[in-house]
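Fold it.
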Amino acid sequence: MSRFGRGDDGPDRGYSSGVLKAEALQNAILTSANFSIIATDEKGIIQLFNVGAEQMLGYRAVEVIDRTRPSDMHDPAEVRARALALSAELDTQIAPGFEALAFKASRGIEDIYELTYIRKDGSAFPAIVSITALRNDAGGIIGYLLIGTDNSVRHRVQQQLGEALLAAEKANRAKTDFISSMSHELRTPLNAILGFAQLVDSGTPPPTPLQKRSVDQILKAGWYLLELINEILDLALIESGTVSLSHEPVLLSEVLAECRSMMEPQAQQRRIGMVFLPLDAPFYVMADRTRLKQVMINVLFNAIKYNQVGGHVTVKCTLTPDNAVRISVRDTGRGLAPDKLAQLFQPFNRLGQEQGAEEGTGIGLVVTQRLVQLMGGDIGADSTLGVGSEFWVSLPLTTAPQLDTPPGDPVLAPAAQTPIALDSLRTLLYVEDNPANLELVEQVIARRADLRLLSAADASLGIEFARLYQPAVVLMDLNLPGLNGTDAMRILRADPSTAHIPIIALSANAVPRDIQKGMDAGFFDYVTKPFKVQQLLAALDAALVFSSARTLTTHNNETAP
């Protein structure tokens, strides 16, 4: 018994118990098989090699203690790469080996590496290793401690995730390519249907009343089918994540004015009044201008479409507390019951309107919602039966774009353009392999007394014709046998004898990325099939003016003294 008596033995026993617990914890750490613990001396020679290190690396402690450096068990290429990186970073030579691994630790910075361990049998595995410098009471380094864990499972999961992402991207690309291909295949015959129907509708002599009703039905059904194709295409591209949007300051009043001019004729046909309340300020919103117009036209179209005859549509813009602009479109239609309102923005859900007189797909609002969300905004609706509905779009408010013109520099007014007299008869070359499309354009151009049409059935012949006949404008289909239209355009651009000729793409490839690729490649304009006759003629007129200006400039340069 202690000389302090039984009652005084408590603290001693507590101290002994604490020491035993600490020793037990230390022993558990050193003998743990879950992670490797390697300690070296100041020269990097291994002095401690725990059970976890033995199991992880396949060496017994007696084989490496006082004999081996940890870097001898690492991938030598990684060790050399780290030494080179450190040497470049510090502008000093770092020897490859353990020094490259312990450099930061020696400066009091604990470092964690992802590296490759090499087992005794030569097999390799990824590991995460932390290195800490061990110091004595005077602060001098007496060794290094390396604690490592096997990272194989994490690497395997990352690899599987990467493979899954690649597979998903491949599937998305395949889906987009399929959509683009199907869009092209559907648009090509639809181009002939709508094109010839437009020619019959505007022909001389005009169609009889019975023929006129038939042609109107063809046009109505054709344009509706095109709308359906476009909506499905838009939705598929958005869902696959391949649609691209710009984010820039957009003046809201300009977009609304454009939408109003586009939608008022439809409102007047239905005897619906449109009221656009004046904006309190020149609001700029962060959005994609083209997509914002698409959103607003769709919302306005629905407000007109599901309104009552003699009703009205009111558009109002207000600021919200969260620094956004809310564009509200209120109609005086029949309104929606709460259960129907909850089903808005569901694909192909027409909310019981399938049997009504108004055609629709149930896709438009879904596309609108996705586009608004991609622009960083929100969309919603409120409705009351017998009173009407209010749809609103909220977009982030931003500041007006800054002009690039430096302060004090005058902004030059555009120079007055001298009217250009077109030749009495100018050549238009159309490169097209589809006979129906060729005949359609032939009939369109036949109505122009200032143009004559020359055609080529493939790109090679089209290139030769362009060089020989020097047309004022080239219309180029893209999906041609052999050489495609884009490559043919590049050849003509590279040839000094044809580089000045504006080339318009006329294609059923109507996916936005295809249009952008075409414009980026160098086409003067890009017209999609099915085309509206006036749309094609407007593109041709712009190209003819451009061609005349180039011709006049070339002539002036050649005749200048």
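Residues 1-9, 404-423 have pLDDT under 50 and may be disordered.
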